[in-house]
Design brief:
Chains A, B, C, D, E, F, G, H: This is Nickel pincer cofactor biosynthesis protein LarB. Eight copies of one chain form a homooctamer. By secondary structure, chain A is an alpha/beta fold. In chain A, strands 8-7-9-10-11 form a five-stranded parallel beta sheet, sandwiched between helices. Chain A is globular and about 50 Å long.
């Protein structure tokens, strides 16, 4: 515990050994940080890494960072800010499938997918196959079943996770989204549904937490 | 409004015109009433009707009533107490399908089914076809689709309602049950899921309210 | 299940057989979709159908769509975007009554009413007859009782559903609205009240879900 | 504030000036107190008062107290333990009406009614007139309207309070009860409904708090 | 019930006999109504009454109404819009005390106070005497005790209601406000505290419902 | 989907192809089923499998089953009922670590551990190493880090999951337990904590759902 | 961190250096542990300490332990099991005041008081001085103000904490209790009230957590 | 109680003896007060004190006050408005440590830190040492342990409080923050976690209540 390396900024400490401990540099959660704090943190990260990322980034952070790090990229849908100078495929053909119930779940799904890709995984996107029209899911089932890990992204009643859980014999990560209204209570309905899935063996992450799902999928996919 | 008939008991008033207004005598909700109160109410009902029922009845009510009304019946699973002296089929072959996700949902399903039968409907029971093994549902789908009204009974995450809603082009009544544990919060998870069903057009009743589902199904089934 | 027809867009799949399966083309839930995604979906729908609709539509979607589909219409109160080239009356004089407790419940009521009308039903609107002045309801009761299906729309404490449920011997669909404040918790009070209605046999839909109520009423009204 | 009289027992202090300050001796909330603590408190009260009471009393407290205070009475339905040696009518013909939605609400209603009676009020009981059969309420409306204060006791969706509030031009106290199940959440549904009543000017007390309603009604009824 | 008078507007019905039934013309809840709807309603009311009011009014409603009803008034703090052409004192020296815990509770308190005044009551305002500095309350206690009805307005933990309830032998109406943050949950903390007040006999209204408190106080104050 | 094999019992359907689809026979959730229903289901399972199990089993089910299946076993702590005639190790030295915060979490932990063992995994138990004495965890960290998958079982505030998540570079499954009291709300506190873990990439299962965690861990551990 | 001493039992680890680190041996939380587990733990503790304790102990644990540790004591009201062979007063005349709103709060208060005493503090008990009769509190205020730390124990609406917080210029620890019913939600009302206390600077512990309050008071009292 | 000094403003009363009773002038909670109300209050305070402060202040209040009190200061991060003409150190080297889990917790932490400083304490800031990288905390542990009182500020799952509670033998105040999203429910997750901390003896304040933590820490630190 005495050999950890970290950099002390004003109000933030950047871990520099997390890459070794956890296979990827520390990921910056941008919400609640000022633009300047984010810029400082990314500037530090870029001194040590080729690939790194921040989540829930406002566009203004990207604009503030661009002059300093010209190859920084910003994905508007997922709100991920990242640098990826040396893309590598760590897990070969072992694919992570990201499946959504609806079109409105795409921002969360893309956060999961892009996270998994930046960490070196091949990703299969299967979007808008919610259970209200279950044949749409059935038509894509073969390709989903070939994946190594499956991420189910759904708002409203979140039934997609249970249906997938019964159909796919692979580790399944469920991501409830805040898509919906009224008694959805900003994702609570889907969250509870996924936690109570009759398809045992589903791991659930926080509402709208695409990043967490992507990271867990990467960790599972890295096993052998 | 001036021609209503009712009987005043100690602490209870029995409507005697509800049969005309609503197609069935007043149904007694036994919970929270003493055995004696229930006996008094049923004794009054039997003076005016051939068929009547009470829900959530303790066995002790049945035992107290049996000496007075020898043909009273008690269904242990649904906890319905009833007299049915002159069974009639009001709605012919127009069937109500009662579908459950699991075996543990049976008490609620039977409350719905028996209610619908006492009110004069043919009932099709399809039990234990939850979405964790969706092929079980698919195998029974043809017969469900032939029904006129469908009641989906499910606890845990309640996904059955959404899946059925996408597959069946008939009025669908969803009954969340308190089957489950933990973040199920005694049926809340299934209730929220059903209210947020992505399959639009699902009518939801209270948690464990098999009676309400049976009655609504009967009213829908009586339409022509 | 192998003969389903659908169109694959970027992030969305449009069912083209739902008309046959469910009696109306897929309805677009516009919230959470970009204007462009909505335009793409509606453009696809109009190639196959004369009548179709989207709910919770922003005016900007309408404006983006208008140049492409000149006869698209937008109802500001209900926020429904629709094309209705060949209006038909499917259910004759069988009327759906939409009843509200207050004037503020009108946007939700109109979503229900317009949905039912687009699907081919005659609709009777009875607005602002909440139980605080119960004589207003009583004065309109005769016409409500002539309807085939009744939709009760109410916020605050949602008592309208229970009172109507006791007075009308027809299938009753209750729509809680988010009208109110404080311990209303954005519709939760009305939702719980409707689920616990002492008038058994009420089917409840999600808070502010006028569309779901309209669709369910249509399905019930189509029975014979 | 320096002239207060009180008696110090082991773990309890008995106010002896509350009769003057608040018109009735301190009322003992028996739940959570041991039988012995209750006996000690009642023994102290009887040294100073002719009329006093305790709420939520177990029968074992009554049995422990009976040998010491032979004229102590116990009302099983309301669970009130009381001595009433010198019954007086303080408020003449000014009546408090206690109205319930159902028979199962009687224990709470009786707690309110008996409290009001012990404090010297005339009480009119109107039970089982819930809104599912609104004519039952209408038939009793005239006598309710003659009362000076009205207490509405209801579980389930608690709609009785709103309907009464619109019909009666007198102060109305609403008591939600825990009668019901499922999404009633042990009285929460009725509580929220009553707090959100569209009939403005309803004062709500805690779930099952018949005592509080009776006491507030007494205070209102004592005004002139 | 056949003699009720009302005016039917587009989406709204105005009761014209409520003045007789309830002692004051129907009060307009402006939230959720369009400016035009409000103008129509107020125009109808002014044809029949000298004094009438609306709550939760936006300033734009006032501005739209002013050209039509030049003597309409708008109280910015309470957001009450009103006409009061013929102020009368109905209840003489019988005073209603409105007491607040903090300065931030003033908008709700003023809604209560102005409502009571418009209905013809004398009001005593005692503001910013919360229990954190209980001597401030004690210093004003004498004048509060002289009032006939007391309204306690408090956010945060709402302890003012309990303390006042123990000190004042008059009907007490408690109004929780949404003043506070965090675990206050927009007034829930104060609401629950007031419902559970150890000072029995407190009537609680909805969070921020100054109007309801003022109206109930008026009804109590009108008793004799 | 047409080749599924299943057995239809009274109220239950037993899948017989789940072993192939999901690597283990259908697991029976015993809660809510009668003893007789459970016996019927297990008798059917034993005709087809050497290893199978039920969770949340009452001892009475075991006693009813014992005469029919003499080698059935019952683990009192985890409440698992199982037959394991032909134990196999499917995943070699690839170990699943089950870590608990406290001794009281053992029943849930044992449900996870025994499930994983019955499915063919080697399990390392590390109990009572909660973060209040973090050195206890640090002392066992080396062996935990050697595991392939880690299950963190904790009640109260559930901080163990976050701390482990930062220390271990392996897929982590978090199981909140209902151990605790008061504002723990029967496991809700731990559940929310785990869902919000600052250590990204934790998959959470339902409160007290040791079985789900064991099954998911097995699926992850089976990957290569 | 490498010099920690602990004893490994079956499913439990006993810290033996916590006395040094935290000033008192590890306290055993008995709920959820079997009698045998508790006996094993206490047997280990007694080998190393003269004073130690367990909370939430069933009487059966005491009875199982008594033959092994004859001088073990059990306090029925607080449910504390303890050995105190060498009572010491660590903090001299620096007193901790434990104040309750009602008699029913005594079990929690005694848990706090006995904990503080076992840890070596002088305790002043002031019980049943809730705010409904605020003069009772005022009469005892002088002695409370002389204490060094104050613990306020209250259920229902928990107003005692706010009132004390405004009157006493000492660190104040608030303990909500589950005393109450209905909208008390088993202590939630008091908990929220205490967290939102307008008297800034109150530290709150879990519902019914007398032990935590006693321990924190001891730590504060030990400062100098 | 008769010698209290206070100033009556319009809608606000300023205590002028709180400095003596509580060691610091009344602190102004600016939220919900108009700019003018705040200016009036601060003008009154400055007539009597050299040091005083307001929390949750908008910048517009500062700007309105600046012309009147030129030496008023505004700290943008903590939103504290203050005058500190005569800074004093009341508690010498006795330090209060303010520790945060993340950078986003800084506004709340600074509210605590600045409050403690204005009241005369030395503050040690240790930021961004959350448990996801526990070595960061360990590296700073020595300096934290030297403090006299510790304030743990954390959002998300709030595990920092439990970990610190086990490591530091000093009074610990936990401040949950609203940092996070989804099932964080605006700080509820961290709040519940801290209330249920397995590290006994943690005093919790309201979500985001840095001021309350700072004040309580000051009171504890002032003890000797």
């Amino acid at each position: 515990m005495d050999t950890n390396k970290s950099v002390q900024l004003d109000g933030a400490i950047i871990d520099l050994d997390r890459n070794e401990r956890q296979g990827f540099p520390e990921v910056v959660y941008c919400e609640g940080k000022t633009d300047q704090q984010c810029v400082d943190i990314f500037m530090t990260l870029q001194e040590h890494y080729d690939t790194f990322m921040g989540t829930r980034a406002r566009i203004s952070i990207y604009e503030a960072l661009k002059p300093h790090i010209p190859d920084v990229q910003y994905d508007e849908m997922s709100r991920i800010l990242y640098v990826n100078r040396n893309p590598i495929n760590r897990n070969g053909e072992r694919t992570i499938a990201v499946v959504t119930a609806g079109t409105s779940d795409m921002p969360v799904a893309e956060e999961a997918a892009l996270t998994a890709e930046l960490m070196g995984n091949k990703v299969l996107r299967v979007y808008d196959v919610g259970v209200a029209g279950i044949h749409r899911l059935m038509e894509r089932l073969d390709s989903i079943q070939e994946a190594n890990v499956v991420i189910a992204v759904a708002g409203m009643e979140g039934a997609l996770a249970s249906v997938l859980g019964g159909l796919v014999n692979k580790p399944l990560i469920a991501v409830p989204t805040s898509v919906g209204y009224g008694a959805n209570f900003e994702g609570l309905a889907a969250l509870l549904a996924m936690l109570n899935s009759c398809a045992a063996g589903v791991g659930v992450v926080n509402i709208d937490n695409g990043f967490g799902a992507g990271r867990l999928a990467h960790m599972i996919n890295s096993q052998r």
